[in-house]
């Protein structure tokens, strides 16, 4: 089969994992229906779903569009006009309506002479425009890279000129198709969930979990590869009696395609591709030596890259000219198709080129591969090299060396140990899929509970970080029970990670059970790593002390959080305080420091941020990507919830980049929730909505969102808190209260979020007249604040008390104490929020002079941090108190939004109070709701509203809403 042969179309049905692309196509069709045409080029390699997306476009165009089709055919690629002939043939009846010059230009489609290109291209445009006059038209052009040049240029010319026509043109092409000036939509590899759903459609429910994971991992996000692998599974593989496939089945479309691409390369490029397939990547020095000794230079590298088999490696990691195999699917296909002689030649060439000291493990491996036999001596040497790389934090080298050592190890137990070490280091290097694949090789070799427990512990950590915490909980609990009688310290660590996964999943019943089990679990000495790496601790005594401190910290943390969930706040404060103190004494243990930071966060203790920063530093020192990702997620929560100004924090952005790069879906969701919450505290509606959309999976092209769908209840709960904060910033307390009280709303799905959101709920309820409900919410938060005794929490409790106070003097006493506590905690922004509430209360109590002092302070802080909606509220209160306030500072304030302080022109003739009421009426609030917000009577609101109507010359709320909007 030629590389030009087109892969078979996928079966019709639902497209998985292409929501973003489908929205783009639907948008294009929607604009064309409205008379605003456009074009789009879908770019991807074979088997990624380009044709399926065109099919979806055609289904979306059914019942209204005329559909014209052209398909590039390799055999016609050199035949001028072949593609136009197929596309425009259904329009032959309209050609007679064209001007004579255009009819002549289209004559070659019927055998006439070749026209001037511009006239031909214009004729194509005019003919498509004629077709669109009777209704919208969709032109679907598949395999555009194989269209003849005249057709491609004519259609590209037309596609750039369809803006005023009900015409949509969608191309599907490989990257090399010359379609400049047309928007490109590149199809990324499918995520794991989409691949699993395609696999289920192709193979039904017969696949076990491990086999399904192996197939999806091997397919590397290619939809056609998933189907081909599913179709090639044997009965023995389906039953578990045979190993999962290691390559696409012989004769498959994609495997043959990759082989033909390889064979069409120049000889030097062919050697380069097989060398990279044998070693996965070649650094710049090795490529330079290959150019000198093996005739492999820049031309060969470029040819291999253009073929789609290799790509240039990340310059920051590997330097110029370093090359890497495109993905595991390509590598496995090429290696499976290579003959024994070709494989030996690749190993031999690499054995000559790898001469640097750091390349010695690879050199040993390729020399051993030439013999093709197990060799324990070489395996031991590779294991030693792996240990050295691990100690240096070079997990990208160590995991591969461990795996190669395992392949050359004859004894089953030692081989299993080395595979465990390989999986551990692959995970530490941020390669979750590789770690899973290696772990699957451990199970057939395991003969005792220790290895099974270690494997389940690692697998549970991977699942928790990768976004399946509910799946991880039973794995980690099982690992703890397997390890309990062998190594209590490891068992306790497994329980700690199980509790973390249960908390992320919102399963607090499981959390309480885990905490109870941890309290009864004896701890003992942790043995060296499964791979034999030396312990970094200085002495046995120091190791024992560190282990005891870690165990006490975990127990205190688990018991303290369990007490928090049960409402035993005094007990929780004592236990969590102990966890914080133990965390301050821990050094170099990223996980323990992160757990201590989260304990401090629960207490509202400012030490949380320093502890989280220490956790991040410890993880970075070790080069452990998952540990760093987890520490950054903890730091993001601490900075957002204890930060003084509510701005997007560095840990969130940095952690989100790392989580996305390493596939840590759960951590990515935590960062998106924190970013949304930080933006909402500041009233930044656009930023908050952007992060919330990514959190829900609606705008995250990497497939890392979908917190609800993935069962990431904690992230979803904190994210759901954000819209309520935006409502408060926009002075819509009724909406905020509804969000915070509805089932599934902010906090109700997670105990800590519920506690932290309580002051906002109290504020919203108090401003809407639901004082009894507000009092109940304040009571629980106050008990928690009194137990923790941290200034920030106590300040918020006093603010709640002030909001609920009946008399002004009592409220003033509470507000004054809250301000003092805010200052003690260094919480500048919360201080400004309290100043605003205090000033508003004083103004309504007819003490405008005292109110102005607090309102000016609030305004200065809000302007400093660009909190536009809060600035608007403060200015409105100042005007109502008889002070226009200082002139707005455009440098200090962010761009204004719809909820910002700018007054619509229609309101300029009203008093501040009337304008405020008019805005609330325009938002749909009733007189009774407005009265509850402003602590006035409905009769007074009715009086103000009649005056507003009189001044504006209108008669109804509808007219008022139209004037303001």
From TrEMBL:
InterPro entries linked to this entry: AAA_16, P-loop_NTPase, Sig_transdc_resp-reg_C-effctor, Tscrpt_reg_LuxR_C, WH-like_DNA-bd_sf
HTH luxR-type domain segment(s): 903-965
Keyword Transcription found: no
Region (Disordered): 522-541, 879-908
Low complexity: compositionally biased ranges: 527-541, 881-898
Keywords: ATP-binding, Nucleotide-binding
Descriptive protein name: Helix-turn-helix domain-containing protein
């Amino acid at each position: 089969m030629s590389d030009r042969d087109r892969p078979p179309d996928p079966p019709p049905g639902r497209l998985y994992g292409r929501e973003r692309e489908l929205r783009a196509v639907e948008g294009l069709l929607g604009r064309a229906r409205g008379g605003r045409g456009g074009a789009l080029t879908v770019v991807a390699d074979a088997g990624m779903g380009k044709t399926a997306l065109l099919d979806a476009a055609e289904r979306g165009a059914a019942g209204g569009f005329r559909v014209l089709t052209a398909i590039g055919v390799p055999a016609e690629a050199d035949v001028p006009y072949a593609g136009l002939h197929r596309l425009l043939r259904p329009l032959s009846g309209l050609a007679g309506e064209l001007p004579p010059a255009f009819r002549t230009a289209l004559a070659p489609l019927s055998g006439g002479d070749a026209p001037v290109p511009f006239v031909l291209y214009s004729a194509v445009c005019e003919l498509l425009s004629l077709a669109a006059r009777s209704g919208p038209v969709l032109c679907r052009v598949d395999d555009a890279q194989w269209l003849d040049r005249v057709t491609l240029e004519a259609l590209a010319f037309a596609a750039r000129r369809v803006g005023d026509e009900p015409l949509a043109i969608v191309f599907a092409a490989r990257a090399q198709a010359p379609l400049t000036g047309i928007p490109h939509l590149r199809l990324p590899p499918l995520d794991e969930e989409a691949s699993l759903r395609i696999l289920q459609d192709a193979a039904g429910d017969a696949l076990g979990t491990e086999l399904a994971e192996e197939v999806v991992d091997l397919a590397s996000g290619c939809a056609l590869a998933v189907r081909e692998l599913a179709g090639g599974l044997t009965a023995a593989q389906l039953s578990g009696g045979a190993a999962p496939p290691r390559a696409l089945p012989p004769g498959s479309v994609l495997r043959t395609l990759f082989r033909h691409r390889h064979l069409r390369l120049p000889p030097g490029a062919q050697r380069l591709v097989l060398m990279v397939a044998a070693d996965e990547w070649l650094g710049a020095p090795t490529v330079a030596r290959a150019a000198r000794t093996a005739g492999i230079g820049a031309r060969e590298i470029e040819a291999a890259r253009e073929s789609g088999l290799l790509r240039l490696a990340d310059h920051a990691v590997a330097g110029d000219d370093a090359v890497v195999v495109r993905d595991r699917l390509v590598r496995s296909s090429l290696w499976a198709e290579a003959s024994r002689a070709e494989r030996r030649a690749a190993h031999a060439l690499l054995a000559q080129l790898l001469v640097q000291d750091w390349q010695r493990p690879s050199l040993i491996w390729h020399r051993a591969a030439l013999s093709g036999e197990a060799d324990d001596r070489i395996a031991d040497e590779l294991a030693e090299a792996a240990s050295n790389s691990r100690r240096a934090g070079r997990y990208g080298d160590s995991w591969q060396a461990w795996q190669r050592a395992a392949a050359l190890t004859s004894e089953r137990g030692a081989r299993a140990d080395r595979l465990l070490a390989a999986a551990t280091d692959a995970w530490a290097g941020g390669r979750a899929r590789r770690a899973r694949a290696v772990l699957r090789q451990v199970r057939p070799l395991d003969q005792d509970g220790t290895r099974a427990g270690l494997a389940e512990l690692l697998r549970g950590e991977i699942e928790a970080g990768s976004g399946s915490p509910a799946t991880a909980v039973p794995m980690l609990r099982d690992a703890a029970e397997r390890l309990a009688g062998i190594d209590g310290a490891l068992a306790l660590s497994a329980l700690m990670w199980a509790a973390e996964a249960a908390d992320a999943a919102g399963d607090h019943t499981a959390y309480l059970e885990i905490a109870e089990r941890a309290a009864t679990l004896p701890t003992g000495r942790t043995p060296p790593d499964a791979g034999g790496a030396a312990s970094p601790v200085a002495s046995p005594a120091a190791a024992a002390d560190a282990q005891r401190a870690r165990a006490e910290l975990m127990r205190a943390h688990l018991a303290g959080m369990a007490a928090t969930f049960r409402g035993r706040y005094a007990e929780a404060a004592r236990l969590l305080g102990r966890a914080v103190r133990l965390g301050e004494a821990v050094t170099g243990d990223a996980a323990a420091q992160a757990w201590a930071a989260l304990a401090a966060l629960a207490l509202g203790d400012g030490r949380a941020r320093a502890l989280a920063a220490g956790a991040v530093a410890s993880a970075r020192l070790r080069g452990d990507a998952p540990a760093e990702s987890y520490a950054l997620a903890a730091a993001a929560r601490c900075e957002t919830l204890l930060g003084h100004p509510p701005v997007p924090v560095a840990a969130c952005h940095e952690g989100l980049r790392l989580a996305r790069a390493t596939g840590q879906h759960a951590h990515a969701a935590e960062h998106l929730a924190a970013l949304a919450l930080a933006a909402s505290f500041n009233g930044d509606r656009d930023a908050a909505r952007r992060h919330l959309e990514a959190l829900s999976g609606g705008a995250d092209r990497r497939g890392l969102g979908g917190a609800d769908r993935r069962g990431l209840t904690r992230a979803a709960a904190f994210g759901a808190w954000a819209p309520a904060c935006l409502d408060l910033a926009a002075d819509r307390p009724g909406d905020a209260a509804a969000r915070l009280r509805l089932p599934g709303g902010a906090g109700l799905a997670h105990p800590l979020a519920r506690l932290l959101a309580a002051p906002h709920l109290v504020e919203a309820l108090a401003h809407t007249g639901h004082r009894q409900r507000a009092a109940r919410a304040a009571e629980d938060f106050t008990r928690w604040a009194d137990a923790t005794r941290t200034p920030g929490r106590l300040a918020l409790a006093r603010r709640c008390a002030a909001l609920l106070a009946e008399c002004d003097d009592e409220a003033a006493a509470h507000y004054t104490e809250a301000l003092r506590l805010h200052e003690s905690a260094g919480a500048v922004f919360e201080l400004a929020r309290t100043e605003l509430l205090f000033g508003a209360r004083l103004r309504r109590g007819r003490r405008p002079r005292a109110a102005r002092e607090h309102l000016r302070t609030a305004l200065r802080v809000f302007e400093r941090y660009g909190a536009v909606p809060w600035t608007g509220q403060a200015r409105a209160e100042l005007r109502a108190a008889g002070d226009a306030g200082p002139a707005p500072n455009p440098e200090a304030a962010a761009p204004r939004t719809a909820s910002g302080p700018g007054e619509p022109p229609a309101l300029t003739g009203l008093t501040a109070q009337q304008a405020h009421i008019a805005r609330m009426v325009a938002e749909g609030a009733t007189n009774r709701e407005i009265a509850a917000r402003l602590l006035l009577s409905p009769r007074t609101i009715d009086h103000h509203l009649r005056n507003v109507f009189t001044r504006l010359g209108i008669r109804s709320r509808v007219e008022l809403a139209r004037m303001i909007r």
